[in-house]
Amino acid sequence: MSDVCAATPYDALLLLSFGGPEGPEDVVPFLENVTRGRGIPRERLEEVGEHYFRFGGVSPINAQNQRLLDALREDFAAAGLDLPVYWGNRNWAPYLTDTLRQLSRDGRRRVLVLVTSAYASYSGCRQYRENLAEALATLEREGLEPPAVDKLRHYFNHPGFVEPMVEGVLSALAELPVARRDGAHLAFSTHSIPLAAAEASGPLGGAYVAQHEEAAGLVADAVAEATGVPDRPWRLVYQSRSGPPQVPWLEPDICDHLESVHEAGAPAVVVAPIGFVSDHMEVLYDLDTEARQKAEELRLPFVRSATVGADARFVAAIRELILERAASERGGCPRRRALGASGPSHDRCPVGCCAARESAPAAAGADSPYA
Ligand SMILES: CC1=C(CCC(=O)O)c2cc3nc(cc4[nH]c(cc5[nH]c(cc1n2)c(C)c5CCC(=O)O)c(CCC(=O)O)c4C)C(CCC(=O)O)=C3C
Ligand SMILES: [Fe+2]
């Protein structure tokens, strides 16, 4: 199905991500970028720096994004979708501001933004919108025409995100000895955030946990159906907590949960990184290194399931979401696929969505200072 004006009014897609260091000399400046003004204790920073140094100072995230870009370009070409794809990051090169300058110089007037987080939260949604507003303001100061930006809706409940996760959990279960498979518990893991940020997430609050519960439940249901094990225990758990200890963050922590699973007599556990789009450092260190070691201490068989990465179904879902948004911007009524009860998420974040303590201007939402 080829349609040359399918993405109209958009003339570019921007992949907006976190960014990561490319070598040991990048680690400290990267961490300074990430934590500027965020009140992370010095000891936590040193500890996280060590995670990166263990992997040669190289975060996997940039290569993962490069793979996703390649897959998107291939998929668009095969589908006859003529939409150039750009890439910019919050914390490392290619920096968002440089990419927006390029978009402006290339004459792109209306850009759709794909963020590498599937859920509503300050860190995963609003902070990116603030980064966009800041970068657009920089372009204006420099006398460059800033493109209009819109952000794709959250995709945590899109079949193209859920289905690869289901397949990943089924493959992980298949790696366990047959005798332990049917009794294995599932732990769906995501990034912990401060309780206050969780409460403020989404248009009405509480969206971060609610969306994760929905996605995890969808995966658990599909796994139950495929394995014929209807009552397998599962739980949403949290990892990668930072910030000062007196500030409450979402719990239980994955490692504490592994203890509970062990005490409950589980024969094995499959950990599904539902909160992450690809194998970030949080997956390689906090799950594959730290949580795995905890499971080994407990003699609890442990398999970590795959992230969606550049899975063809996920890539096709992104294309579908682009065409959907373009059609609705043209005044149409496209099909908006979403699994489960909560329905498709909003296209445009309303005023106050994922509000932070100190409010900064945010683009790509109803309260954007840019059209
Ligand atoms: C919700 C969420 C996502 C998922 C959504 C999304 O994907 O955006 C995410 C992703 C990521 N977080 C990452 C790295 C870090 N996050 C940190 C700190 C923090 N993350 C937070 C939340 C999240 N983070 C929060 C509330 C903090 C506290 C400081 C603050 O309020 O800002 C710190 C500082 C040290 C530390 O405290 O851990 C680092 C180094 C990387 C790159 C990994 C790689 O290199 O592969 C990625 C993809
Ligand atoms: Fe939001």
Give descriptors for this structure.
alpha/beta, Rossmann fold, 4-stranded parallel β-sheet, 11% strand, globular, binds coproporphyrin III, binds fe (ii) ion, iron, Ferrochelatase
How does this model look, in words?
The chain is built from 12 helices and 8 strands. The protein is an alpha/beta fold and 371 residues long. 45% of the residues are buried. It has 2 domains: 12-155 and 310-329, Rossmann fold; 159-304, Rossmann fold (3-Layer(aba) Sandwich), CATH 3.40.50. It has helices at residues 27-35, 42-54, 61-79, 96-105, 122-141, 159-175, 178-181, 195-199, 207-227, 254-263, 281-297, 312-329; strands at residues 12-17, 85-89, 110-115, 148-151, 185-191, 234-239, 269-272, 302-304. Helix 11 (281-297) links the parallel strand 7 (269-272) and strand 8. Strands 2-1-3-4 form a 4-stranded parallel beta sheet, sandwiched between helices. It starts with 11 loop residues before the first strand and ends in a 42-residue tail after the last helix. Bound molecules: coproporphyrin III and fe (ii) ion. Coproporphyrin III (HT9) binds next to helix 1, helix 2, helix 5 and helix 11. Fe (ii) ion binds at residues 120, 125-126, 349, 353-354.
